[in-house]
Amino acid sequence: MSRALSFFQNPWTRGLLVLALLGLALLGIWWQGPEWNDVYHAFDFVRWWWIVAGFALNLLSVLSRAISWHLTIRQALPEPHPRFSHVFSAFGVGLLGNAILPARAGELARVAVLRRHLPHGPGTSATLLGTVFAHRLFDLVPVVLLVAYVFSTAKIPHWAVTSLVVVVLVGGALFTVAVVSARRGGSTLHDGAGTVRRVLVMARQGLAVMRAPLPAALAIFFQTVGWTLQLLAVWTVTKAFAMDVPLPAAALVLLLMNVATIFPLWPGNIGLLQAAVALPLRQYGVAYGTGFAYGLVLQAIEMSVGVGVGLVMLAREGMSFATLRRMEEEQESEENVLLAGEGETVEAERESASVASA
Q: Considering the entire predicted model, what is its pTM?
């Protein structure tokens, strides 16, 4: 068992598995995908200035989300607070990490990068991890607003309704449980909780500090602005393909794109994401091949913004990919220490309760 585990932990093995999965995915897409001649000719009359505008809107979306995280951090850490330039740099490296590292490890990478600019002692990384979790939870507000907008205005395929409802219900339940856990201090956790326990511990670290209503509201506002800018980017790129679809169609595309990337079956979920974009657009009179080409451009814009900003910030930090990977592994170790310490705290609370009852 240990040999098998060490085999799969080898970076070369994991790299080969990723390439194999990507190869199988591309082969399946090529074999069962759209009429590639239609996809190719969909680019014949593309107006590229609209794509440039979509890229710029995505870049502004990243900036707005970074402001939201900065506001969250300012409430979580004592002074001196990190400068926004350092927060944006860490956020950009995190985008790059999510693009090239497995399991959204970019979230750990951005904590590691920002930690280099902070003088605070032990526990700072744990608090930053909590702010990342809180920042992600703030996505639920614009997502719920977007889902409500889509359900009231867009033509939703029957197969997509269930997925959207499940995402909202799970996200709402997670947000509720996290907030309740933060207020109670996490004393109800038990040793066998596994992943749920990990999520709740991070929520306690991040959400317990969000007691100032105005900064919390501002953080949610900028996160919502980020989603709005991304929605406008998705709609702007429809202009590049002369689709002539309304804004609700772009909102539906944005939602289904995010649903398609929740569980990465292979790198980028290439093909699956494009199908999730092209299928609902058929109800708006958009040919499947054109919708598929449009999905390719949307993913290329998103990847280029994340990777481009990440590479610039990585160079600004004077770091390499190897350093990024090593720092991500160090953050995983610190997170395990956090969980171990939480277990000791919970056990101590139980012992105190037993003594008090006796």
A: 0.79
Q: What is the pLDDT of residues 48-84, one digit of tens each?
A: 999 999 999 999 999 999 999 999 988 888 788 899 9
Interatomic CA distance for residues 86 and 10, integer angstroms:
32
Tokens 């920002």 appear where? 114
| CA angle, residues 96, 97, 100, in degrees to nearest 5 | 85
Euclidean distance between the first and the last CA atom of the chain, given in angstroms as a whole number? 45
The alpha-helical segments, DSSP class H, found in the chain are 2-9, 11-32, 36-41, 48-76, 84-100, 106-115, 124-137, 140-153, 158-184, 195-207, 213-240, 247-260, 272-281, 288-316, 321-357
Residue type at 44? D
Closest-CA residue to 178 (of 221, 137, 129, 216): 137
Give the DSSP per-residue string, 296-342.
Answer: HHHHHHHHHHHHHHHHHHHHHTT--HHHHHHHHHHHHHHHHHHHHHH
